Amino acid sequence: MADPAAPGHIELEGSGKFYYPSGATYEGQWKLLNPPPPPPAEEPKEVKKKKVKDEPPPPPVEPPKRVRHGKGVYREGDYKYEGEFVEDVMQGQGTFTYASGSKYVGEWKANKYHGKGAYIWPDGRRYDGMWEENRMHGLGVFTDASGHRWEGQFFNGSGPGLTSLV
Q1: What pTM does this model have?
Q2: Would you say which domain of life the source belongs to (predicted)?
């Protein structure tokens, strides 16, 4: 393991707080993408000259970038996501709370509701079930503000033929 105090040592992961130009903040785990490559081993001058003459220059290197990776909390204005990130993308388990007070709790894939989850409206309405690409899709239960429940297959955000549960 490299000594973190050594000159030139770069942390590849950690935890901390990020501040974005928009005013948003993130507090949690992070990972460094595109870490600088280790310095090349010295080669004899003849090899260096041949390489320079025969090979095109290497493509420009992407600068290192710290991204949200692991568990954390992202806040922007009255919006809040608390959960898992994979290389700066909401993925895994998480809760997103909207400015309106609505909330999604469940599985995420590529920044979208995907898998099992619940969406809760401030007026008491609620959907519990399967999601695909941010839409209710698959088996689920919708409960209206009066407490009436409908169960069945949802398709692409709607629930034709739902059965009322008494």
Answers
A1: 0.79
A2: Eukaryota
